[in-house]
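cache lookup: miss for this entity combination. No prior model stored, computing from scratch. Input as submitted by user K.M.:
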Amino acid sequence: MSKIINNRRRLPFVNHPIQIKYLSLVAVAMFVPAIVIGGCLYYLIWQTVAYQLAIPELIFQTLLPAYHRVNAILIIALPFVSVFIFLLAAGLSHRIAGPLKRIENELDTMIRTHNFTHVLKLRPGDELESLIEKINQAISAAQGKK
Amino acid sequence: MQVKKFAKMLLIALPILLIVIQILWSPFEKPEKLQQALRRWAGSMETVFRHFDFNQKNALKQWEEKIFSGKVAYWVDFGGGGGFVHSKSENTSSAIFRRLKFDPKNYPILSWKWHAVRFPQKEGAQDQIAGDDFAARMYVVFLSAFFTNIECVEYVWDETLQEGTILKSPYSDQIRQLVVQSGPVPEHEWVSENRNIAKDYELLFGKPPERKVAAIAIMTDSEGTASEAEALFDDIRIGKDGV
């Protein structure tokens, strides 16, 4: 099977609805557990420490400054983490959406030009390798029959 | 036939006898959770939720201690026929507390006896933290869904501030202090307090308490003034009515 060497896509986005679908799925699969688990841990840790400290003066004197500091760090860090997760989701979804878009384009070209000698190619890291291989084999077999 | 009858009676009587012995005299410590469950179950009938008379040497066993700055000595002392908690702070600050869970609407009355032996020297107090030293104070800590909303009513005994003075803790606005005793009293004279927690909460926070009480605590501290303080506490009682 052919691969396009040193020809990575510059942007991890293609104009195809399947990428939006996969992007949403991957993003939700990353964000929702992170928010649920992170939120539970956040609540549990603060409440447990506060429970152990028990005396309000001690809580407000020692725990509250730490709580404000952690919140400040989170406010600064969370946008960066969110962007990172979004880009990661985009990259992962693109590995499926990218070759799908390519298959569609190549097949469109073949149908339009009636040139079935064309070989479908993948970019490094793309998924659907076996599918493209089967399509190429099918095209070759069809060519052989002719 | 007689032997069979006797055996049957013994089978019924023996467990009952064992239960009675267990109730009247138990070599083991009664499980706290069982006691709490029984109290909750019988809560509506009970007049007194808890009474700490400190008449046993190990009366502070189930009280926990939290140290702010140096350990205050808290011990059960005996004199005048019964036990009491004796606290002594030498430039230190720590509290002992007891976790409890009760609705102040059901058990609004907190009563206790106390005696301030020695007051922290506040004359030269420079800041609010130094002014926050008290010979004796009683905490009522209210539960909250998250720790930032925790609220606390503190009854304090101050040397100079007038009775009825309301103070805000220098640590948080959610800790309100009410001066319930002022100045020294003669030696060996116990002062009795009888406070309605729900009413005092309303007085201090301007709204009725919505949450349950999570703990009560007692404290003697003198670290802010780098001085010494000493107090006695006895007969802490939580109930429906006053003593």
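stored under new cache key. The interface with chain B takes residues 43, 46-47, 49-51, 53-61, 63-64, 67 of chain A (CB under 8 Å).
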